[in-house]
């Protein structure tokens, strides 16, 4: 493998996917984040790891945020937003969490690689990230570019929210974890 060419291929693929994400979906999710009393994030596997970026960013902007499954996560209620990261939109545990979020009156957001998924049918907001053809059904790919773009989408949501809230990079640094 030519490692330099592989980096170039990956960067081109990530850009191509990111440019296919619908701006209206990004804007709607940003507004949902801004409107929420509290933001909860949930995901499993790679999606769970990447969606945590959104919670960290919300925290550093001064928003109230929690990661579903952490022992300190309070009960969800009306006015809250639960954002699930799920490549398939069919992850069993996330389907249960989505249904419970709706049961307790929370709005539901989904960042996914599959339209018309079970979770998507419950979602109030959805950001669809198209998967490249070579990742579909290819056991060695495991959605690499999809997850890269999830992180970029979370970064965009942070940037859009910062702009609306008039939060600066200096504000983010003041709220950055200082226990590390």
Describe this structure in words.
- With 180 residues, the chain is an alpha/beta fold.
- It is 52% helix and 13% strand.
- It is built from seven helices and five strands, in the order H-H-E-H-E-E-H-E-H-E-H-H.
- The chain has helices at 3-20, 23-35, 45-60, 92-103, 118-122, 144-165, 169-175, and strands spanning 39-43, 65-67, 81-86, 107-112, 125-128.
- It has a five-stranded parallel sheet with strand order 2-1-3-4-5.
- Strand 1 (39-43), helix 3 and strand 2 form a beta-alpha-beta unit.
- The longest helix is centred in the C-terminal third of the chain and has 22 residues, at 144-165.
- The radius of gyration is 16 Å and the shape is globular.
Strand content: 5-15%
Order of helices and strands: HHEHEEHEHEHH
Rg for CA atoms: 16 Å
Identify the overall geometry: globular
What structural category arises from helix and sheet content? alpha/beta
Average pLDDT rating? 93
Oligomer: single chain
Poorly predicted ranges: 138-142
């Amino acid at each position: 493998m030519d490692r330099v060419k592989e980096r170039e291929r990956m960067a081109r693929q990530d850009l191509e996917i990111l440019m296919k994400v619908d701006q209206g979906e990004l804007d709607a999710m940003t507004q949902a984040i801004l409107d929420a009393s509290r933001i909860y994030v949930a995901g499993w596997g790679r999606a769970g790891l990447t969606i945590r970026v959104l919670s960290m960013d919300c925290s550093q902007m001064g928003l109230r945020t929690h990661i579903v499954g952490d022992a300190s996560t309070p009960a969800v209620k009306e006015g809250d937003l639960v954002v699930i990261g799920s490549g398939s939109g069919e992850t069993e545990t996330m389907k249960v969490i989505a249904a419970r979020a709706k049961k307790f009156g929370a709005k539901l957001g989904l960042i996914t690689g599959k339209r018309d998924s079970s979770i998507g049918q419950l979602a109030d907001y959805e950001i669809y990230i198209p998967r490249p053809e070579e990742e579909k059904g290819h056991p060695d790919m495991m959605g690499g570019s999809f997850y890269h773009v999830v992180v970029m989408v979370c970064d965009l949501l942070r940037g859009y929210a910062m702009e609306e809230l008039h939060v600066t990079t200096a504000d983010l640094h003041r709220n950055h974890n200082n226990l590390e």
